[in-house]
TrEMBL record:
Source domain of life: Bacteria
Keyword Isomerase assigned: no
Swiss-Prot/TrEMBL catalytic activity: L-glutamyl-[protein] + S-adenosyl-L-methionine = [protein]-L-glutamate 5-O-methyl ester + S-adenosyl-L-homocysteine
Keyword Ribonucleoprotein attributed: no
Organism: Sphingomonas kaistensis
Protein name: protein-glutamate O-methyltransferase
Region forming the signal peptide: none
Broad class of enzyme this protein falls into: transferase
PANTHER family: CHEMOTAXIS PROTEIN METHYLTRANSFERASE (PTHR24422), CHEMOTAXIS PROTEIN METHYLTRANSFERASE 1 (PTHR24422:SF21)
UniProt keyword list: Methyltransferase, S-adenosyl-L-methionine, Transferase
Domain CheR-type methyltransferase residue range list: 1-275
Length: 278
């Protein structure tokens, strides 16, 4: 299916206006694949015809469907594994000491897609009940896509999805197989929460978060939009909290209020926060 340059530009502009994400030339090859299901559902013959419908503005909900189809929702349980090892073995023990007085932790997974990262975090706590007994653990997952947030709340995954990152024992312990797929146990679902949120909007409230994960989200933003997103993340981070980014992301030159933690490689903190983190 041939896609005209004008249609590509209109789709790129729509995506950036709604989410801040850029549809670079290197990503435009996936337009046809991303929109094919929507075209079939609506009986639309081509992307150029889809653009005509969008421009006429007769179906406002269609533009939302288009944006959600264009988002990159790639994720899986315990993605890349090493970041979760760092959280489990290094970050959480320190946070447990720092928050002993309140016995409360708040964690935010920004750009959580279908929720696998959030449920992975929940499993870290659920599999260490002796350490976290009596604690209030608030794990929040947010995404700009209403469809993805709805899927995350339901917690149901295909056989392929549930096998990505999970061992057999974890699958059996935390998921139940049914007609619709593998669903996270009720206990696991009750331990997390989800909401629709755009990183370019004011940070989620109330309070600040001890740990924020925003992995492989900022890659798709232009420089000025990325700085705005960093401002939102920084404002939501506790004075002695940590931010975790994706492997190809950094705060250097983009977030003057944040710096790499020399003792926790892979995590970022507020500048001059060492004195606050006793």
């Amino acid at each position: 299916m041939q896609i005209s340059d004008s249609s590509s530009r209109i789709l790129a502009g729509l995506l950036e206006a709604r989410t801040g994400q850029q549809l670079t030339m290197s990503r435009r090859w996936r337009l046809e694949t991303a929109l094919s299901q929507l075209l079939r559902e609506r009986g639309i013959a081509s992307i150029d015809e889809l653009i005509t419908i969008l421009v006429m503005g007769r179906e406002p909900s269609l533009s939302t469907r288009v944006v959600e189809a264009l988002l990159n929702n790639e994720t899986y349980f315990f993605r890349d594994r090493l970041p979760f090892d760092l959280i489990k073995s290094a970050a959480l023990p320190v946070l447990a000491r720092r928050r002993e007085a309140t016995r409360t932790l708040r964690i935010w997974s920004a750009g959580c897609s279908a929720g696998q990262e959030v449920y992975s975090l929940a499993m870290l706590f659920a599999e260490d009940p002796a350490t976290w007994a009596g604690w209030t653990i608030d794990i929040l997952g947010t995404d700009v896509s209403e469809t993805m947030v709805s899927r995350a709340r339901d917690g149901t995954y295909t056989q392929f999805e549930v096998q990505r990152g999970l061992g057999i024992q974890q699958m059996i312990r935390w998921f139940e197989e049914g007609a619709g797929g593998w669903r996270a146990s009720e206990a696991l679902r009750k331990s997390v929460r989800f909401q629709v949120h755009n990183l370019l909007e004011p940070a989620v409230h109330p309070g600040r978060f001890d740990l924020i994960l925003c992995r492989n989200v900022l890659l798709y933003l232009n420089e000025s939009t990325r700085k705005k997103a960093f401002d939102r993340l920084s404002s939501a981070l506790a004075p002695d909290g940590w931010l975790m980014l994706g492997a190809g992301e950094t705060v250097i030159g983009q977030a003057p209020t944040l710096e790499a933690d020399r003792d926790m490689r892979g995590l970022y903190r507020h500048r001059d926060s060492s004195a606050k983190a006793a």
